[in-house]
Structure formats: C-alpha cells, structure tokens
Amino acid sequence: MSTPSNTAAPAAAPRVALSPSRQLLRKAFRHKGFLIGFVIVAFTAAVALLAPVLAPHDPYHQDLLMRLKPPVFMGGTWEHILGTDQLGRDYLSRLIYGARISLLIGFVAAFISAVIGTTLGVLAGYFGGRVDAVVMFILSVRLALPATLVALAVVAIFGGSLQVVVTVLGLLLWDRFAVVMRAATMQVRQMDYISAAEVLGASLPRILWKDVLPNVMNALIVVITLEMAHAIILEAALSFLGLGVQPPLPSWGLMISEGKSMILFESWLITIPGAALFALVLGINVLGDGIRDITAPEGRN
C-alpha cells in the first residue's frame, strides 16, 4: 500500500493589485469607443497645431483663374487635392486651418462655461438652502432663454467676430455644468472626509479646492467634452447664417455657408467641410462617453 505524499501543492501566487491609475489605463485601452474618439480628436488637434507645416497653400490666397477646381477624386489635379473654392483658394489648406477655429472655439467656450457653471454648481451643492435656491433661480432663468436665439441676437447686435462668438457661447453653455456639479457636490458633501476636514478647522476655500473639486473632476471632464461639441456645432450654425466667424477666416461653418449656393453643381464644397465637422463632433462625443464609462464607479464599459 502506498503511503500518502507529504508534499503539499504549491500555493497560488498572490495577485498583485493594480494602482488606480493602472486600472484606469487598462480600461481605456479596452474601451473601443474611447480609443476611436481619442484618435479622432488627437488627429484633429495635431492637424490644427501643425497647420502651417501641413497646409500646401496659403488659405487666404485668391486665384480667380483657379476657381472651383474639383478635388482629385473627382478629376482634379494634385496641386489642389481637395479643389478650390469660389475665389480660387485651396480647399485643403482652408480645411486644415478651419480645424484651428473649431477647436479654439470649442475649448475656450467650454472653459468659460466650466468656470461659471462649476462655481455655481459647487456652491449650490455644498451650502444648499438659500444659496441653492438662488443658483437654481439663475439656472431657471438661463434655461428659459434658448441658447441659439440668444446667440443670434447678441451676435447680430455686437457683430460677428471670433472674440464675440467665443464670449457669447461661453456665457450661454454653463447650465449643464451647474446641474451636474450641483448633483455631484451634494453626494460628496455627505462623505466623512468632508466632515473631518470641517471638524479639523480647514478653511472653506481649502475644502472646496482640495476635497470637493478633485472628487467631482471625472464628471466635470465628461461635461467639458460634451459642451465642446455643442459649442462647435453652435459656431458652425452661426457662421452658416452669416453671424459667426467672418470672412476670410476659414471656419468650417463658413465654408459650408459659402458653398450652399453651389450645392446642385459642386456639392463637394459642402460635403468636405460637413464631413470634417461631423467627424470632429462625433469624436468628441464618443470620447466623452468613453471617459464616462471608464471612470464610472461600477466599472461599466
């Protein structure tokens, strides 16, 4: 009869816990939507930053002898890959420089809105009571004013320019920031570390800056991406109506507006900037959805 072996089975190696940053990075690489959105936005940002290097021609140079040349894929020449517009300006160069306008307006307008909305939302969520009532009244007044109509009226009064469009959009798109930050701050306000900071005598600015704001940052980043896309769409709409960015700046919305009279004959004048605008807005929205998913506490994907 064989004797039982005293050799114990080797213990399984303990699993090494990943740091929160490593876990977040792993989720990001596994999230297809986040990767697609990140690639689109990063590519557009790189094109905008390298516009002087990538643009084959001066986007403002006019050559009436070369007007309305078709793109290469429609029988054009490689000298103007995407053709030329009604004034003979290279369409690819204007498209590349137009990325700068769209990203600049989207980022600056979202930043201004984030500052206003986050300040109001955090104060309302942290203090509650009368402060919350005042903020909600201001928010109700803002929501009663249609953003597009107000933007049209203001731009019509003060004139269309890049500075006016950015300022108007920044002052109109803060409502979503206020709503989200208010709800997030109300949840954080109930946490024990906030009570501990108050008991230890921490000042109000330190609590808001060091304890509250870092814990609502994930929601803030998601809203910023969504409002960037919203600002870009509104700018394109204003430019299309002739009340946004003014010529000769190469705005994608302005390019669509300038090509609308030729839609039945040279449809690519609208299709090309329209496709670029669609791709950028889609990328920003998909990126925002991806950030929401990978930073969700329940880890959904």
Give the SSE map:
Elements: H1 20-30, H2 32-49, H3 51-54, H4 91-127, H5 129-143, H6 147-158, H7 162-172, H8 175-189, H9 192-199, H10 204-212, H11 217-240, H12 252-259, H13 268-294
Helix pairs in contact: 2-4, 2-13, 4-5, 4-7, 4-8, 4-11, 6-7, 7-11, 8-11, 9-10, 11-12, 11-13, 12-13
What does this structure look like?
- The protein is mainly alpha-helical and 301 residues long.
- Helices cover 66% and strands 0% of the residues.
- The chain is built from 13 helices and no strands.
- Helix 4 crosses helix 11.
- The chain is elongated and about 75 Å long.
- The model has no long low-confidence stretch (mean pLDDT 85).
Descriptors for this entry?
MetI-like_sf; 13 helices; 301 residues; mainly alpha; MetI-like
Could you list the spans in which at least 5 consecutive residues all have pLDDT below 50? none
The helical percent reads: 55-70%
Supply the number of helical segments.
13
- Secondary-structure content class: mainly alpha
The biggest sheet amounts to:
none
Average of pLDDT: 85
Number of strands: 0
Rg (CA only):
26 Å
**Shape, per Cα inertia axes:** elongated
What is the string of helix and strand elements? HHHHHHHHHHHHH
Amino-to-carboxy terminus distance: 56 Å
Strand content: under 5%
Family: Belongs to the binding-protein-dependent transport system permease family.
Pfam families: BPD_transp_1, OppC_N
Domain ABC transmembrane type-1: 99-288
InterPro entries: BP-dependent_transpt_permease, MetI-like, MetI-like_sf, OppC_N
